[in-house]
């Protein structure tokens, strides 16, 4: 029996995942968490075979929680579930120790297959992501500017590029406006840019955001 912890700040998502997995004979959702700190506490108190972790939660990001989980439990498979397209976070998640990355739009059969695969100690990536990873390994060039950003800076950069204000980002991440402004300043410095519009254009050109949903 594969014992699963579901960590997502949206109750409706947690319920949906539990319903999908309820009829799978070799899987059981043993517990759930609405945030990163709660997920870490549950992992410290109980034994799980797989963690389903949302990458976008209030406060500390899913990537930060992932790194802490892997630091404390390096052999525990963590499968990232995200509303973001693979191009935005998948590579970073795998580098941080994730066993796989799935978008929330994935089919239930794909989710079940991914859980089975990572529970055996293997990695799960989609065909498109595998191609992207192979391309990155094959090309020996200087990293693009966004690759030098920290995980939090990258998260803030995507939000700014998507047209969100500093206050909106602060509210979404449960951080102060001053803190987000500091992150924005770091992003602008590292990316050698001065205006938000430059970030938006860069993100669209590098397929980090969908131009059809921007603004």
Helix and strand arrangement:
Layout (H helix, E strand, L loop, with lengths): L1 E6 L3 H12 L4 E7 L2 H10 L4 E5 L7 H11 L5 E5 L3 H10 L4 E4 L4 H12 L7 H12 L12 H11 L4 H8 L3 H15 L4 H10 L10
Parallel strand pairs: 1-2, 1-3, 3-4, 4-5
Helix pairs in contact: 2-3, 7-9, 7-10, 8-9
Give a summary of the structure in a few sentences:
With 215 residues, this protein is an alpha/beta fold. It has two domains: 2-137, 3-Layer(aba) Sandwich (Rossmann fold), CATH 3.40.50; 145-213, Winged helix-like DNA-binding domain superfamily/Winged helix DNA-binding domain (Arc Repressor Mutant, subunit A), CATH 1.10.10.
Structural class: alpha/beta
For the largest beta-sheet, the strand count, sense and barrel status come to:
5 strands, parallel
Number of strands: 5
- Write down the CATH topology of the largest domain: Rossmann fold
Order of helices and strands: EHEHEHEHEHHHHHH
Shape category: globular
- How many domains comprise the coordinates? 2
Radius of gyration, in Å, reads 18 Å
Q: CA-to-CA gap between the ends? A: 45 Å
Query: What is the second-level CATH architecture of the largest domain?
Result: 3-Layer(aba) Sandwich
Q: Which spans of ≥5 residues are poorly predicted at pLDDT below 50?
A: none
Mean pLDDT: 88
Helix count, per DSSP? 10
CATH homologous superfamily name of the largest domain?
A: Response regulator
């Amino acid at each position: 029996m594969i014992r699963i912890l579901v960590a997502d700040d949206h109750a409706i998502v947690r319920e949906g995942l539990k319903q999908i997995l309820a009829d799978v004979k070799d899987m059981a959702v043993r517990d759930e968490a609405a945030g990163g700190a709660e997920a870490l506490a549950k992992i410290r108190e109980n034994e799980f075979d797989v963690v389903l972790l949302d990458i976008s939660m209030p406060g500390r990001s899913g990537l930060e929680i992932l790194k802490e989980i892997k630091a404390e439990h390096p052999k525990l498979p963590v499968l990232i579930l995200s509303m973001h397209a693979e191009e935005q976070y998948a590579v970073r998640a795998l580098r941080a120790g994730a066993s796989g990355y799935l978008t929330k739009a994935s089919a239930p059969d794909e989710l079940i297959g991914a859980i089975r695969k990572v529970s055996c100690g293997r990695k799960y990536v989609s065909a498109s992501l595998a191609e992207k990873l192979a391309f990155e390994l094959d090309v020996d060039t200087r990293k693009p500017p966004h690759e030098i950003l920290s995980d939090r800076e990258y998260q803030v950069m995507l939000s700014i590029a998507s047209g969100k204000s500093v206050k909106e980002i602060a509210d979404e991440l449960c951080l102060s406006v001053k803190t987000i402004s500091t992150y924005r300043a770091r992003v602008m410095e590292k990316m050698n840019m001065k205006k938000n519009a430059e970030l938006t254009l860069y993100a669209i050109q590098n397929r980090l955001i969908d131009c059809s949903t921007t603004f």
